[in-house]
Specification:
By secondary structure, this protein is mainly alpha-helical. It has helices at about 20-40, 50-85, 90-110, 120-140. It is about 65% helix and about 0% strand.
Amino acid sequence: MEYKEYNNNYFSWQGVINRKNYIINMFMLIAIFILTSLVPFQNFERYINFKFIYSTLIFSVNFFKFIIIMSALSVIYRRIADFSSGKSYKFKMNMNRVFAFFYVFPLLYLFCLKYFFNFYTLDIFSLALGCFGFISAIIFCFIKGD
């Protein structure tokens, strides 16, 4: 039996999410990420005298952005699970590969691998995959699940 509770947990990788909750959750996560990115936290350095407090602030903001990105990945994964729940096993596995290729790989490269393998072609490839992943995340709003 498959777990089919329509939940709104941001950190859960189990279950599915319907279209309405997906749109609301993604809109909130994107808005929080954009607002956090627009605040110039680097300018706070002149107001904070201690470097430790300033570096802790910058680390906390970047960690918060990372949590938002992981929450968005969770929501996208549960949306993929929703519209592939009634399909064949092969379709589910292909959608899991699409998720890993278009969502996990660009973020893994951006956060980890870029510091070890800094190739110009991988930068362009990761950017292209990220753009396609963003467009497909919008398309997932319109695919009807079971």
